[in-house]
Design a protein that fits this description.
Layout: H1 12-20, H2 62-77, H3 79-85, H4 87-96, H5 103-110, H6 113-119, H7 123-129, H8 134-143, H9 160-175, H10 185-193, H11 198-212, H12 222-238, H13 240-248, H14 254-262, H15 271-284, H16 287-300, H17 304-309, H18 313-321, H19 330-337, H20 344-363
Helix pairs in contact: 1-14, 4-15, 6-11, 8-9, 9-10, 9-11, 10-11, 12-13, 12-16, 12-20, 15-16, 15-19, 16-19
Amino acid sequence: MATSPTSTNTSNSVSLHRQSSKNADSISLCSTTSAFSTCPDRHGFYGGSQFSEKPAKETLTREQIVAREKKWLHMINHWQEYMSKNYKKLRERCRKGIPQAVRPRAWFYLTGAFEMHRQHPNRYEELLQQPGNPQIIEEIKKDQHRQFPHHEMFIDEEKPGQRELFNVLKAYSIHNPKVGYCQAQAPIAAFLLMHLPSEQAFWCFVTICDKYLRDYFTPGMEMLQRDAGMLNGLLKKTSPSVYRHLQKHKVDPLLYMTDWFLCAMTRTLPWDTLLRVWDCFLCEGIKTLFKVALVILGASLNSHKVRKQANGLCETLAVLRSPPKKYIEADFIMHHIFRLNITVEDFIHEHKKQEMLHRKAKVS
């Protein structure tokens, strides 16, 4: 479902990511931070960069929402038929946004996690009974309290969120010892736990790590490095002036896209935008992340005045880490990711190009 197109780059940026991941909720493109609230917002945040003081902006009537929910429930009840014969309709409805009431169940089906769970009904509990690698267990314990610390599920150790997060990450490290545990996985698992029961979240997490972001978390992170080159190639086509600016100031893609891709945008976008992006990501695969990254890059550095002011590597990175809020709002992102000047053939071409460069680099 989600093939991972790919780039050859330095390993310094990967190590930079590993350092930055230690403060998992402190780096975000959402630069505004609210004071701590006495009650959570509609997404469960008491404060932090994701807190929203505004009520949900509802553009649909209650009748329209119910109608969409019924359509989704019908699709779920006839899932194989839609996946095999009417995928375009499924994709269209994901792009419109999955109704909140059915989103957890829809994600469980979109990822294929429901089928894995059906095939291995006792696997999760069996994994929890195993001790796991002591070193990995300690790493998970150090990181579990850092994920979305302002959210009602993870706000303290007494809440179930931190315990469930530990369980999901531990179970995966045993399930796939080749990958084990990477700090960038933690916000993805935490995000899933906000929407799904722990066992369902585990199987969704498995599919995301092993299919959507396949080979992203293995030692060396070669897949991420190749995808950085692919993003650069696509940027040259969609926003040539931005591409030239980044080349001029030697802004390696890994310096700005590592968190975006490794964490599947969970530490990058405002919450409402993130939900809409994930609806598409779980349906269409990693090319959704590429498109979101291209929109952020193109919008943030499109202005000649902005590029002139960002006259250096550090200044350019500052723009990309805190772009104007209007460029990461849901309506803006969703409108532009489907209007980018790139085709499936462009993705295939860049993928093959990066594969060839990677093979040449290995030979030399």
